[in-house]
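Why do we care about 3D structure at all? Because function follows from shape, and shape follows, mostly, from sequence. That is the central idea of this module. The next example makes it concrete: a single protein chain, its amino acid sequence, and then its structure expressed as tokens.
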Amino acid sequence: MSAKVKVKNGNFQITIPVKEAYENRSVRNLLDTLRGQDILSRSKATEEQISTLADDVTGAWWEENRERFLDGTDN
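And the structure:
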């Protein structure tokens, strides 16, 4: 990978060619994590709102995927 890391004005500057970044799963995961943390840091949601949203998403996912997991079981 032809990524470059520099320290400038007390900051790390990382340069990664886009094509290489998207072809490398570890780099994609890092970028997704950094984007998520950036979004989260700007969120004005309360812990209770986040918990409610997480419960809603989990419930909706289970309803959509229940049959796939229970198919062939004795339930």
